[in-house]
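Example record

The entry below shows one chain as it appears in the dataset: sequence first, then structure tokens.
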Amino acid sequence: MSVHWKIPASRALRADGLRVADIDTSAKPGFPGQKKDGEQLLSERSKVLAGLQEKLYANGRSGDNRSVLLVLQGMDTAGKGGIVRHVIGSVDPQGVDHAAFGVPTEEEKRHHFLWRIRKELPRSGQLGVFDRSHYEDVLVARVHELVPETVWQQRYTEIDDFEKELTESGTTLVKVAMFVSLDEQKKRLRERLERPDKHWKFNPGDIDERAYWPAYQQAYQDLLDRTSTGHAPWYVLPADAKWYSRLAVTELLIEALEKLELTWPPANFDPAAELRRLDTA
């Protein structure tokens, strides 16, 4: 018998009032089971997620303009790529719009910071995934002083307006901030250095970024305080245990899709008549 959540993931992980400095990155909020329980439940719930995502895709093909956008934000090694592979990888890729945001290109730098984001928004009926996002512009840009404070301060309001526009146009936002401890991050970086098959994932700058963690903590605190809203709340995900991260994001997506109350779109043809035609073909 599967171990289930004690309370919904959306309640257990809601960021409201949370202090970044107090996050226990090894915790598993809302889930009472162990790794084997989580992996068993993930296998079951992945099938539920796949079914809901197929309905979303089918409705999009039939004129429904709604979509879901998963925003994954976190420090290097937080597990964003693992979420894409193990959670999003369980659904139909035809219905997924995925975008990863790195250092802006020279062309992107010449535009408003949301320009490159708007280009990658999910189409109708799609499950969109952002690996990093517009929030880089109030995290990295702030910590490394890439723009003046007056600029990044204004971006919180611009982001809120942008996300309100998205939700009003039919996009459900699922924003997940992933946190690992510095010890766990060091362990994951070490694995990338010790395993030749992981070398491609290593960036020497990841080690340099560790020195900025206190500044990132404050930047993440302000991000959560100023951009977690009723229409686009943040969920804070302790990410030391990869199995828990994947299970939690699966649950958050299931909850978001269930709220859409999706049904299969009606046929725009007469199925009985088409069956008769098929029988005589």
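Notes for this example: The chain has a mean pLDDT of 96. The first helix runs from residue 9 to 12.
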